[in-house]
Amino acid sequence: MADSPDAEKRSIDPEVEKALPAPLADAIRRGSVPEDILKHSHDADEALKAFASHDGQVLQLDEATNKRLLRKIDWNLMPIMCVVYGLNYLDKTSISYASVMGIKKDIGLVGDNYQWLGSMFYFGYIAWEYPTNRLLQRLPLGKYSSFNVIMWGATLACFAAVSNFAGAVAVRFFLGVFEAAVTPGFALLTSQWYTKAEQGTRVGIWFSFNGWAQIFGGLVAYAISKGTTQHPASLAGWKIVFLFIGLLTSTIGVIFFVVVPDSQLNARWLSKGDRILAIERVRINQQGIGNKHFKMYQLREALIDPLTWAFVFYALVADIPN
Fold first, then answer.
1. Minimal CA–CA distance to 19: which of 60, 55, 61?
2. How far apart are CA 97 and CA 95, in angstroms?
3. Cβ-proximal residues to 270 (8 Å cutoff; 6+ apart), any chain
4. Between 113 and which of 109, 195, 226, 298 could a Cys-Cys bridge form, CB atoms 3.0 to 4.6 Å apart?
């Protein structure tokens, strides 16, 4: 006899059931879980599968262990994230240094050409923002993020070969395309590795490197401008600026690829036991670490959450000066 629809509805993947809290598993079997959530009960994320392999073993995370893990996570993630986010700002604003070093004359910018180059970055950024967010969800987070860092560095370095307005437009557009992944990607990384109480401080730290990048970029541009003035080179000063910053960014992108994992489960700098504990410590967030499937009910929840619209308003207001 075929199973009834109710019996099918109450079924749970055995591997998933091992990792579920007993009350939730009982609720699913009784049919008291909403249908839109129940239909995804077989779609466990990587964290749930990892806990299922422990056969119901209770994990103890004391305060000392939590602090030790947090220190290790900070030392391995925060420095590289800060440097990359600083370069993200520096790379898109490096054209302002080039503008006072002769690029307008050398590539024949006239009228409002320069203003269009400033806007072209954001055309690429906006056009690719939604696709790159989907790719951040679907692809390995660390690898996809590092790919974008390497590519936007290489794109910026290509500016040294530009000889006309059309070439500059293409470089600025694709620079925006590759940089579109950095802010949402870093938001995902931060939420994946840190509890809600820890996230605000970490976001503030890596976001503050926008300011440090301005200081660093000004010093680099001044040094190159001064050097090429006193010791003329075969390359124009603005080309050296783009080459230096672009190649530096791509090099940092390779380091990012080595250091930053896709999730706690493949972090080279964590032992096998610590990987599970690193997931356990963010259980309080009530979120997974790597389900790659789109769920419509979660979108509906986000759209009716006032916090979502508060963040939208904040982003709009914060970006007006930009």
1. 55
2. 5
3. 72, 264, 278
4. 109
Please say whether the structural domain 66-287 has been given the CATH code 1.20.1250.20: yes
DSSP string, 97-116: HHHTTTHHHHTT--TTHHHH
Task: Read off the tokens for 193.
Answer: 């590795």
For 100-147, the pLDDT digits (tens) are 999 999 999 999 999 999 999 999 999 999 999 999 989 999 999 999
Half-sphere exposure of 249 (CA within 13 A, CB side): 35
* Domain ranges (residues) in the chain: 5-52, 66-287
Radius of gyration of the chain from Cα atoms? 24
| Sign (positive or negative) of CA dihedral 283, 132, 148, 206 | negative
The number of beta carbons lying within 10 Å of the beta carbon of residue 14 is 8
Tokens of residue 59, six digits:
């994990």
Q: Which helix (H) or strand (E) holds 311?
A: helix 306-319
The pTM (predicted TM-score) of the whole model is 0.80
**Cα(283)–Cα(270) distance, integer angstroms:** 18
Do residues 185 and 144 lie in contact, with contact meaning Cβ atoms separated by under 8 Å? Answer: yes
Rounded Cα distance between 53 and 18, Å, is 8
- Say which residues have a Cβ less than 8 Å from residue 181's Cβ, sequence separation at least 6: 132, 135, 136, 144, 145, 148
Tell me the per-residue pLDDT of 38-49, one tens digit each, with 9 for 90 and over.
555 555 556 655
Distance CA 244, CA 235 (A): 12
CA distances from 132 to 147, 201, 316 (A): 12, 26, 20
